[in-house]
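Retro notes, structure queue

What went well: the backlog is down to a handful. What didn't: a couple of records were mislabeled last round, so from now on we paste the full input next to the output in the thread. Example, using NAD-dependent epimerase/dehydratase domain-containing protein from Medicago truncatula:
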Amino acid sequence: MEASGGVNNNKKVCVTGAGGFVASWLVKLLLSKGYFVHGTVREPGSPKYEHLLKLEKASENLTLLKADILDYESVYSAIVGCSAVFHVASPVPSTVVPNPEVEVIEPAVKGTANVLEACLKANVERVVFVSSVAAVAINPNLPKDKAIDESCWSDKDYCKNTKN
Ligand SMILES: NC(=O)c1ccc[n+]([C@@H]2O[C@H](COP(=O)([O-])OP(=O)(O)OC[C@H]3O[C@@H](n4cnc5c(N)ncnc54)[C@H](OP(=O)(O)O)[C@@H]3O)[C@@H](O)[C@H]2O)c1
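Corresponding output:
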């Protein structure tokens, strides 16, 4: 995606959940490489996004847009016109939640489906989905001597039983 010389003045990209831990570093990197960044946030104006506004080039090249990944129209509005989308937004509870199916899995899956559908409709050239080691590594039957790769998946029942 990078043009020669590392300048990406014509490239507009979207980062979902821009204020989160991983996404904030990504926004910083993209701005440093000259991209125009659409960052989605759920509560525009909240102090929790102030660090983004202080990033180098943020005043010229970063636009924060209100979007909830569970609201398709808000996602589409943030994505349209972008050549790439980095989907990072996801519920990431810091403690064990009472009903993970409803509080974590459903919104993560529905939110990702909304983002992918919006990318398709908006003719986005490239989508990068940030997953987690939790998707592949929580499985007591993984061979100890084998590198974890795309053939490996966490064991759903084991995850449920261990509240992972
Ligand atoms: N942290 C790590 O070391 C690490 C490593 C590998 C993978 N990951 C993965 O990277 C992703 C982000 O992790 P993180 O640690 O950066 O989490 P985080 O700091 O909690 O950030 C999550 C972001 O998701 C947004 N979000 C949650 N639900 C949303 C919804 N319904 N609509 C729109 N935005 C929503 C939040 O937005 P608002 O702030 O606007 O509410 C928040 O900014 C997760 O999938 C995680 O599994 C993280």
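Agreed that this is the format going forward. Reviewer comment attached to the example: Confidence is low (pLDDT under 50) at residues 2-6.
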